[in-house]
C-alpha cells in the first residue's frame, strides 16, 4: 500500500513513475493481480523512500539550526545578566 499518490505531493521524477504504474494498472486490469506491474511498483516504492529520506534529512538539518539559534540566545541572555 502506498501513501497518497497525488501529483502535488511528490517530485516530478516520482510522478512519472507513479503515472506509469497507474497506466499499467489501467491497461492490465487482471494482470496487476498476477504481478504484471510489480517492477513499476518497486520503482515507486524506491522513489517514495528516497523522498521520505530526503525530507527527514532536511527536517533534521532545520531542527539542528533551530537548536543552535535557541542555544545562542540562551547564552546571550545569561551573559547580559
Commentary on this structure:
- There is one protein chain.
- This protein is mainly alpha-helical.
- It contains two helices and no strands.
- It has helices at 12-27, 38-80.
- The model has no long low-confidence stretch (mean pLDDT 91).
Layout of helices and strands, plus pairs?
Elements: H1 12-27, H2 38-80
Helix pairs in contact: 1-2
Briefly say what this structure is.
By secondary structure, this protein is an all-alpha fold.
* Biggest β-sheet strands, sense, barrel: none
- Global Rg: 21 Å
Oligomeric nature of the chains? single chain
The helix fraction, in percent, is over 70%
Report the mean per-residue pLDDT as an integer.
Answer: 91
Strand content: under 5%
Class by SSE composition: mainly alpha
Uncertain runs are: none
Terminal-residue CA separation? 56 Å
Please tally the β strands and state the result: 0
Observed structural traits:
81 residues, mainly alpha, 2 helices, rod-shaped
Amino acid at each position: 500500500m502506498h501513501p497518497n499518490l497525488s501529483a502535488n505531493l511528490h517530485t516530478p521524477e516520482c510522478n512519472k513513475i507513479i503515472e506509469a504504474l497507474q497506466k499499467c494498472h489501467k491497461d492490465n486490469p487482471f494482470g496487476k493481480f498476477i504481478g504484471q506491474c510489480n517492477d513499476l511498483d518497486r520503482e515507486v516504492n524506491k522513489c517514495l523512500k528516497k523522498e521520505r529520506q530526503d525530507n527527514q534529512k532536511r527536517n533534521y538539518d532545520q531542527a539542528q539550526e533551530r537548536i543552535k539559534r535557541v542555544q545562542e540566545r540562551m547564552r546571550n541572555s545569561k551573559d547580559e545578566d
